[in-house]
Amino acid sequence: MYIYNDFDEKFVRERTRQFRGQVEKRLDGYLTEDEFKPLRLMNGLYLQLHAYMLRVAIPYGTLDSTKMRKLADIADKWDKGYGHFTTRQNIQYNWPKLKDVPDILDALANVGMHAIQTSGNCIRNVTADHFAGAAADEIEDPRPTAELLRQWSTDHPEFQFLPRKFKIAVSGAPNDRAVTKAHDIGIRMVRDDKGEAGYEIIVGGGLGRTPMVGKVIREFLPRAELLPYLEAILQVYNLRGRRDNKYKARIKILVHETGLDEIRDAVEKAYEFIKPEFSHPSDELVNGIARYFEPPQFNNVQTAAFDKALEENPALCSFVETNVAEHKNPAYGIVTISLKPVGGTPGDATSEQMRTVADLAEKFSHDEVRISHEQNIVLPHVRKADIAEIYQVLKEAGLATANIGLISDIIACPGMDYCALATARSIPIAQEISTRFNELKLEHEIGELKIKISGCINACGHHHVGHIGILGLDKAGIENYQITLGGDATETMALGERAGPGFSAEELVPALERLIDTYLNVRESSQEIFLDAYRRLGAEPFLTALYPEAEKDAA
Amino acid sequence: MTRAFTPKMVTANDLLEGDVIYLTADNKWSRLLSDAHVFTVETEANAALELAVGQQDRLVGAYLVDASADKDGNPTSLHFREEFRSRGPSNYPHGKQAEV
Ligand code: SF4
Questions:
Q1: Which of B57, B79, B95 sits opposite A29 (nearest CB)?
Q2: Which residue's alpha carbon is nearest to atom 5 within ligand 1?
Q3: What φ, ψ does residue B65 adopt, rounded to 5°?
Q4: Are residues A148 and A253 in the same domain?
Q5: pLDDT digits (tens, 9 = 90+) for A11-46
Q6: In terms of CA atoms, which chain B residue is nearest residue A479?
Q7: CA of A54: which chain B residue's CA is closest?
């Protein structure tokens, strides 16, 4: 776990102190809302439908028990006893009062956390693979790199007023769990043919109104050159990105309109110019930070008792099958705690549950917790021998839902239950889908299936890259849901294709049932997941399932 | 011919709480949609909005929303977004629905 140095500490304290003064001035009438709004947004404070919302950064999704307990305390003291974990690995509080926010920021600063750069046209919280440091397929832990980027981008004087917001994700493994291709910059750890580790730099990805898959701007960037190269990209974007039109201001549009080759040339030119300004090679900086992310001392305990427990306890077995991933140490597992209980709100955790997770992390996971972009919580380093006990504790806390990667493990943005920008609700749709497919008892039969729901075209719910994506719209004053099919959020990223006319809230779940029925009928075997079946067969059979009437009309 | 005017309410968020508020007939602010005044004359609605926008020290983001009133003047909002705003989220009994 990275620990704030004096510089970080001073900076965060100073910002909190400034914000306290700004809130006072606003309340005393010395600042108008127009003057205050950019200041509060710089500190992660939004005004939503029913209340203010505070977005707190969880850098690269990593927490320890102290931080998690603090998040729980804040939920109890200043909110309604829960928090919402987002697709950007942040936590959002839905009900803070304006006058309390400076106190909340102070409380966060006490544990080395803040809400800075979680809004505005700057470089946002850097995200990373939630299995970082634990995954069996990892080349290198991406978090030291992500932490270096956090330090570089925090309060970077040149990049506080970019044309638009800027999101960076880092993955350390060939299996991309950080959705790198849907970020302004995606960074993937790779090896060259000499076996040397370096970065593949992807640029211009993004979802939202104009979804685009990121393009590789540099196939292999030596680790030493990371910061000046990224600075060069940002500089080119800052100068050439469009400021005339908010909807065309992201770097994806610049890359798309200018062409990758021209942007690459411009970046290389800027890079040559910038390089001498960076006195320290980035790899040395990353290595310096890496000592905060040393892997824990693993001890190779016997797993025989675990194997026996699996045989005797089918519920545990089912949990392990879906919620435990392969760890780099065979005596360990990575436990994902689902925040998607049947009929629940995706990504929400009560303060009680946060404390349970903190206790478990402290006792069983070398005090490490991760938040995934799929809105779940991860205990990254768990001895297999302890999993049965952990499962028991999770069960009692209502956290043992065995559904990771399945149809009810839905990503859903807050939608019109909270978000001021929403065009329709997303949460009730997620609740309905998970309730219905639980009733049908089909979930495990269906296997891996990613449903992602957004409440407007901003696509915080990643609907474009869901195997089944759902987008909520306002169609003449009625909530309407558009389906996309065939999206993929991984290294083989694909944008889903729009199926056709949208569905009303009532029609939606029956339509999904027809879709899933068809999949179960046409798949080659239970090994062929929905996405593969879709890729093999094309859209046709699935569209027939969604729109049986249209087929009849055409016949 | 002038186009028909859809009656309006003035709504905003409370500065301190962030809570949804409505302008009442006696120029006060209420947290309940049922207290909202429905303006049937366009110029009056616009004037009320202007007044609201000026009250920076107690509210944020005032705007007009389409509304209708029954014969006793009881207001209803015409769009689902405003309906949600008047109640609270659908996943928990939080917000206004919890208070009434
Ligand atoms: S996708 Fe739209 S509705 Fe959902 S959180 Fe983002 S902005 Fe709000």
A1: B57
A2: A413
A3: -125, 150
A4: yes
A5: 999 999 999 999 999 999 999 999 999 999 999 999
A6: B80
A7: B18
Shared-domain flag, residues A248 and A139: yes
Please answer yes or no on whether A51 and B18 come within 8 Å at the CB atom. yes
What is the torsion angle, in degrees rounded to the nearest 10, for the CA atoms of residue A238, residue A243, residue A245 and residue A246?
Answer: 60
Residue by residue, what is the 3-state secondary structure of A409-433?
CCEECCHHHCCCCCCCCCHHHHHHH
Please check whether residues A523 and A487 belong to one and the same domain: yes
State in Å: Cα A458 to ligand 1 middle.
6
Q: Looking at the 3D structure of chain A, how many domains does it have?
A: 4
Q: Which atom of ligand 1 is nearest to the CA of A456?
A: 2
- A112 CA: distance to closest CA in chain B (Å): 27
Residue B15 in contact with partner chain A when CB distance is under 8 A: yes
Taking only the tens place, the pLDDT of each residue in A444-488 is 999 999 999 999 999 999 999 999 999 999 999 999 999 999 999
Predicted local confidence at residue A3, as pLDDT: 86
In a domain, A401, yes or no: no
Q: Are A331 and A40 in contact (CB under 8 A)?
A: no
Chain centre to alpha carbon of residue A446 = 24
In a domain, A533, yes or no: yes
Residue A27 counted as domain residue: yes
Q: How far apart are CA A226 and CA A230, in angstroms?
A: 6
Same-domain status, A209 and A285: yes
Shared-domain flag, residues A197 and A94: no
| Cβ–Cβ gap B94/A80 under 8 Å | yes
- A33: chain B residues, CB-CB within 8 Å: 56, 60-61
Mean pLDDT for the stretch of residues A498-520:
98
Mean pLDDT taken over chain A: 96
Q: What is the pLDDT of residues A130-164, one digit of tens each?
A: 999 999 999 999 999 999 999 999 999 999 999 99
Q: What is the pLDDT of residues B74-83, one digit of tens each?
A: 999 999 999 9
Q: Residue A308 belongs to what H/E stretch?
A: helix A304-312
B61 Cβ under 8 Å from any chain A Cβ:
yes
Q: Tell me, what's the ipTM?
A: 0.95
A87 with A202, same domain: the answer is no
What CATH number is associated with residue A36? 3.90.480.20
Q: Which domain holds residue A24?
A: 6-109
Residue A278 has pLDDT above 60, yes or no: yes
The two three-digit tokens of residue A246, written as one number: 């908010």
Residues 6+ positions from B62 with CB-CB distance below 8 Å = B10, B11, B12, B49, B52, B53, B55
Is the confidence at residue A515, as pLDDT, over 60?
yes
